[in-house]
From TrEMBL, chain A:
Main location per the UniProt record: membrane
GO molecular function terms listed in the Swiss-Prot or TrEMBL record: calcium ion binding
CDD domains found in the cross-reference section: EFh (cd00051)
GO biological process: protein transport
SUPFAM superfamilies: EF-hand (SSF47473)
GO cellular component term, pick one: plasma membrane
Gene3D superfamilies (UniProt xref): EF-hand
UniProt domain EF-hand: residue ranges: 107-142, 148-183
Keyword Lyase: no
Location of this chain's protein in the cell: Cell membrane; Cytoplasm; Nucleus
Keywords: Calcium, Cell membrane, Cytoplasm, Lipoprotein, Membrane, Metal-binding, Myristate, Nucleus, Phosphoprotein, Protein transport, Repeat, Transport
Protein name (record): EF-hand domain-containing protein
TrEMBL record, chain B:
Topology with respect to the bilayer: Multi-pass membrane protein
InterPro entries reported for this sequence: Cation/H_exchanger_CPA1, Cation/H_exchanger_TM, Na/H_exchanger_3/5, NaH_exchanger
Catalyzed chemical reaction(s): Na(+)(in) + H(+)(out) = Na(+)(out) + H(+)(in)
Name of the protein this chain belongs to: Sodium/hydrogen exchanger
Span list, region Disordered: 577-626, 689-721
Species in which this protein is naturally found: Poecilia mexicana
Keywords, alphabetical: Antiport, Cell membrane, Endosome, Ion transport, Membrane, Phosphoprotein, Signal, Sodium, Sodium transport, Transmembrane, Transmembrane helix, Transport
């Protein structure tokens, strides 16, 4: 570990991040380099414009960028950056839930939570119809009419909403996606 | 039976029959119904197994057998090294027919299936090359082989494989182009795929390229475009016909394989040879799979588990292709052809029967992950889309060019260029995946609806019941959405009173409206359904402002003008309405204020319900019409795309906003009427039909009378009254 420790010297909270996120040291270094690349003025943190520049065409790009920032904050530093990216590591199959360790970032639950928060911008713990509509509109807007969008949102809520409160809470969200292979769908292969 | 009758082999599976008449349909079917996305995602793994795996199988089998031969285990047969290699190459290939036959019953999870299946298809390229190369070597004799020949062999592999695929792709695109132009002659559409698919196969054979690869890629390329371009009936026809042909061919192949076995004249039995072949095939298959998978897992996102690897190894079935190739051997050059043929037959029987039959219990015993039953829920589909975008974004942010990046690029390219070229314009509009799911779900709903309705005697009952579902919540939410300003202005208790107050019918209206919106995407069946329904139960559909029947006003100008006027008047009435008058009154007044001066007089009757009854029922539905409705409608109109809450802001600019959107969406017969037009129409309905209502049901709420006071628009059709 000595060599990795020294190579991580430039990385803020390097050791801690290693353990928390499960990234390898080499990968962490690379991400740090990437961070510095994005951080054009070498301020040590990123603003949303830096990230958005990469995501110009993405329909939900602004939401994803928003997910990097804690509510209320305007900047994201390297540890937060890495923590968010840690959600996308492939799930380890042999992680068992023991009360001792905190749940790793790439567990299925955390991944779903991340996805949930993309919809739930006001962080009230539920996806309301308007929020769902907004997402649908962003993704589908050009090809379907407003009415159809409404109907789709309506229907989606009807399907998922089990306690009939006309919004999808996290448990309902998770339940509706239980057959989906989140592993495959929400993992990115991080290259060294 | 045959033997008993004739004492001689009358039927044989000749290679010609097999390769030219029986095999193509099966492969075309597999190509056409190949899950493309899955296939291409796993293409790397598939290719590695197909190419390297097959080569490994061939090499090891041939060498081992030769080794055993040298060691004397097989007695006295005259097979040289090259011939062993040749034999190895023809036994090496996993057979698509057998794999389909077995795996179709077993339902393993899709990744596993596509790996074995894809491998069985793609290894044809290798098989053909190896076979031809070794055949040529055998003909040349051992001495003439030198580096040049080997290099030629390797080059020919690339030519054969890529050439075949390319040829298939070209044919696939050709078919798609053809299907784009067949709008008026739909009856010949199904024929194209069969004819051109077979043509692809034959052309490849003619050019000595890999014909199986050709037909596979033909199917793979054209499926998307065909399914979008063709008429629904044609799609069904193609699907069923393909399945029939494929199944028929498969059955015939296996029957012939069986029959071929009883030909006594060609039987040669060599225990050592046969047993060793079987043994080696199994062993080397497993070894090959394990090695390759270990290698692949290091770069796969989700590794292939050990159990899955076992199934993959066990699924290496040999089948009719091997037999066909064996029969094709040149007898003069290869003296022991009969032995090889017999061994091949036995191996085929062994793998297909034994391994095939025991596959299912094995899968169950090992608890392999089974195929998830695909359930089209909207949330899942939407979420899948979100995931895709998410992954692309994360890859972008973390600065790497990964799978998702390429996939995204391909998708963009495909949408921009290929779709434009190969899809009918109408099909292009309906491309969106989520919307398709939505459409499918609506169709399913309609079907169930009909079934249930008929079951209970009349569709009316169903409507009544289901309409009561959670009206309160719906009402509350919709209401809020529609008029947050009013809610804000008026006292809270008033607002909530409104919420609690509603007669069930009101919320039903909301719900109905939503449900109606859902159904608009369906065909005539559902419209008819609704008609029937509406006709019967007046009470439930008071506000029925059939959006679905409004879609044929082609006169843009008229609509626009109406719209502008409506908007202006509405804004005024809204402003006055905001002044804290009691809610019902307010809204009623609001309704009253809408003069609806100019209802398009030729109110286009919907094509499917042009009778009095319908009009009448419409009257009923619209009249008992309650308060919230026009408001909501009003808001909606102004806010085609924006949040209805921002109505006041919108107003001055909305006439500018909407028309282009209207114009854009309205140029073709659109099954879903834009809410735009609907809004425009509706208040008009109210007025017209209000008077109808009076005559029909005199005793309704006092509020209704208010609706009646405004003078009916002068141009209203008299026949309605």
């Amino acid at each position: 570990m000595g060599s990795s420790r020294s190579s991580l010297r430039g990385v803020p909270d390097g050791q801690q991040l290693l353990q928390e996120t499960g990234f390898s040291a080499a990968l962490l270094l690379r991400l740090h380099q990437r961070f510095q690349f994005l951080d054009k003025d070498s301020r040590g943190h990123l603003r949303s414009e830096d990230l958005e520049a990469e995501l110009s065409e993405n329909p939900i790009g602004d939401r994803i960028v928003g997910a990097f920032f804690q509510p209320g904050q305007e900047t994201v530093d390297f540890p937060s950056f890495v923590r968010v990216l840690a959600h996308f590591r492939p799930t380890e199959k042999n992680w068992t839930r023991d009360g001792v360790q905190p749940e790793p970032a790439n567990s299925r639950n955390r991944k779903l939570k991340f996805a949930f928060q993309l919809y739930d911008q006001d962080r009230d713990g539920k996806i309301s119809r308007t929020e769902l509509l907004q997402v649908l509109r962003e993704m589908l807007g050009l090809q379907v009419t407003e009415e159809q969008l409404q109907s789709i949102a309506e229907r989606a809520i009807q399907e998922a909403d089990l306690d009939r409160d006309d919004a999808i809470c996290f448990d309902e969200f998770r339940k509706s996606l239980e057959k989906v292979d989140i592993d495959h769908k929400m993992s990115v292969r991080f290259l060294e | 039976m045959i033997w008993g009758a004739d004492k001689v082999q009358t039927f044989k599976l000749t290679p010609t029959t097999f390769f030219f008449y029986l095999l193509p349909q099966i492969i075309l079917d597999t190509g056409y119904s190949m899950p493309n996305k899955l296939f291409f995602t796993n293409l790397g793994a598939i290719l590695i197994h197909a190419i390297i795996g097959t080569c490994w199988n061939a090499a090891t089998l041939g060498l081992s057998l030769w080794g055993c031969h040298q060691g004397g285990a097989m007695g006295n047969i005259e097979i040289g090294l090259l011939q062993y290699l040749l034999y190895g190459s023809l036994m090496a290939a996993v057979d698509p027919v057998a794999v389909i036959a077995v795996f179709e019953q077993v339902h393993v999870n899709e990744v596993l299936f596509i790996l074995v299946f894809g491998e069985s298809l793609l290894n044809d390229g290798v098989t053909v090359v190896l076979f031809n190369v070794f055949d040529a070597f055998v003909s040349l004799g051992g001495g003439a082989i030198d580096a040049k020949e080997i290099v030629k062999g390797i080059v020919s592999f690339f030519v054969v494989a890529f050439g075949g695929s390319l040829l298939g792709t070209v044919f696939g695109l050709l078919i798609s182009l053809l299907s784009r132009c067949t709008k008026n002659i739909q009856i010949i559409e199904p024929g194209f795929i069969f004819v051109l698919g077979y043509l692809a196969y034959l052309t490849a054979e003619m050019l000595s390229l890999s014909s199986i690869l050709s037909i596979v890629f033909c199917g793979v390329c054209c499926q998307k475009y065909m399914n979008s371009n063709m008429d629904e009936n044609s799609i069904q026809t193609v699907r069923y016909a393909m399945k029939v042909f494929a199944n028929g061919s498969e059955t015939i192949i296996f029957v012939f394989l069986g029959i071929s076995a009883i030909d006594k004249t060609i039987w040669v039995w060599n225990t050592g040879f046969i047993l060793l072949t079987l043994f080696f095939i199994l062993i080397y298959r497993f070894i090959g799979v394990f090695i390759l998978t270990w290698f692949l897992n290091r770069s796969r996102l989700v590794p292939i588990s050990f159990v899955e690897q076992i199934i993959m190894g066990y699924g290496g079935l040999r089948g009719a292709v091997a037999y066909g190739l064996a029969v094709n051997l040149n007898e003069t050059k290869i003296k022991e052809k009969n032995l090889m043929v017999c061994t091949t037959l036995i191996v085929v029987y062994f793998t297909v029967i034994l391994q095939g039959v025991t596959m299912k219990p094995l899968v169950q015993w090992l608890n392999v992950k089974r195929a998830a039953i695909v359930d089209l829920t909207l949330v899942e589909k939407v979420q899948n889309k979100v995931f895709e975008h998410m992954l692309v974004a994360i890859e972008d942010i973390s600065g790497q060019i990964g799978d998702n990046y390429w996939r995204n690029k391909w998708r963009n390219f495909e949408e921009k260029w290929m779709s434009r070229l190969l899809l009918k314009p109408s099909a292009r509009k309906k491309q969106d995946h989520v919307f398709n799911v939505f459409h499918q779900l609506n169709l399913q709903d309609a079907m169930e609806y009909v079934k249930e309705g008929e079951h209970r005697g009349s569709l009316e009952f169903i409507r009544n019941e289901s309409a009561f579902v959670d009206f309160k919540k719906k009402f509350g939410e919709d209401y809020e959405e529609a008029m947050p300003d009013i809610m804000a202005v008026m006292a809270d208790d008033q607002g909530s009173a409104m919420r609690r107050d509603p007669v069930p019918s009101v919320s039903l209206e909301m719900h109905e409206q939503n449900m109606r919106g859902l159904r608009e995407a369906e065909g005539i069946n559902s419209h008819y359904l609704l008609d029937q329904h509406l006709y019967k139960s007046r009470k439930q559909h008071r506000y029925r402002f059939s959006r679905s029947h409004l879609d044929i006003n082609q006169d843009e100008n008229e609509v626009q003008e109406i719209f502008q006027r409506t908007m202006r008047s509405r804004l005024e009435s809204f402003k006055s309405g905001k002044m804290g008058v009691a809610p019902p009154k307010t809204i009623t007044k609001h309704t009253k204020r809408e003069p609806q001066p100019k209802m398009p007089n030729g109110r286009n009757k919907p094509y499917h319900s042009g009778d009095e009854d319908f009009e009448f029922s419409e009257g009923d539905s619209a009249s008992g019409y309650d308060t919230s409705f026009p408001m909501r409608v009003g808001y909606r109109a102004g806010a085609g795309i924006e949040n209805p809450a921002f109505m006041p802001d919108l107003d001055p600019s909305s006439p500018l906003h909407i028309p282009p959107w209207l114009a854009d969406a309205g140029l073709e017969v659109n099954p879903v009427a834009p809410s735009e037009r609907a809004q425009v129409r509706t208040p008009g309905h109210l007025h017209r039909l209000a008077s109808l209502r009076t005559s029909a049901q005199p005793g309704d709420t006092v509020r209704d009378r208010n609706l009646l006071t405004p003078p009916p628009p002068p141009h209203r059709d008299d026949d309605h009254l």
